[in-house]
């Protein structure tokens, strides 16, 4: 059985006040093209379908077209709500749409819906766990109110009440922050560790299709995975390759993972240099000037009306920054003020980016994380 794992579409999102809707239409069409070629047996969408709880009319129309195309292809789609979605709005009409092979997680009422898919090896159960806050579980299960104080408690209690046949193959869709995952700037954060979920809670599932973190990565074992967002939504994602995660299940215990690359119509990039350097034709003639850019100027003096001037060459310039004696001095002050609020990995990530003018790769971050863990031990 072959499944596509997607998440964090964030349809309707604006990045630095620029609408991403056309970019999203382009990437969703690319996903549909991949589905026509690969013919998956199902598609998993692990939350944050929209970027806001009340999506725009255009955002709803874009997602409606996307789902209708899968229905015409007779490929079932399984969708859960994320923290950016309204669970109530997303679940509207779910019973009716289920007849067309489009399955939404319902509003959490103490139980988790599951749906069967069958192949030559037997049944695969798809469990739909919507994004859970402790208050949601306390409302649905008042008898558990005292023991549900954190997101981990909420997920644990919900999963304890889930029927799981461990002899069959089981897949869980979840939209939570699992301890050990590496965040990006675009994700919504909570104070402290109150949103963190221990990966051990998912031990009964053969594959866990996670959403919420925009960087593709495994957490713990390779079959607990964030597929990542299909587009770059922050400059901390510059070094990432976006993709569709392909999950192929054979007999129980055998899962093969692969990825189908996604290529945006506009990439998200960083460039740096003096004003004269970045405006020199030889600097930009071999690159796509239509990309979304962060330009860092190294001039000691600010360029008057620099943003407007640079946009005559780079029309989709999103952010203009300066790296000079003045800004470095300011950064040192801010870093000193905030250093105690950050983890060792966050501090090393920022140091690496300052030194190299680019973010760390997934492999580099995993190496540093493992090294830090060994040092602590």
Question: What does it look like?
Answer:
The longest helix has 18 residues, at 21-38. A hairpin with a 2-residue loop joins β7 and β8 (122-128). The protein has 2 domains: 2-261, Metallo-dependent phosphatases (Purple Acid Phosphatase, chain A, domain 2); 268-376, no CATH class. It has helices at residues 21-38, 57-72, 87-91, 94-98, 134-140, 151-160, 275-278, 281-284, 306-311, 325-338, 344-356, 362-376, and strands spanning 2-6, 14-15, 18-19, 42-46, 77-80, 102-104, 113-119, 122-128, 169-175, 177-178, 196-197, 207-211, 217-219, 221-226, 243-249, 255-261, 268-273, 292-297, 317-322. It is globular, with a radius of gyration of 22 Å. It is an alpha/beta fold.
Unreliable spans are: none
Strands in their spatial order, largest beta sheet: 6-5-4-1-15-16
How many β-strand stretches?
19
Under the CATH scheme, the architecture of the largest domain is: 4-Layer Sandwich
Overall average residue pLDDT: 87
Derived from helix and strand composition plus strand pairing, the structural class reads: alpha/beta
Question: Any key phrases for this structure?
Answer:
single chain; 377 residues; alpha/beta; Purple Acid Phosphatase, chain A, domain 2; 2 domains; 6-stranded mixed sheet; 19 strands; 31% helix; 24% strand; globular
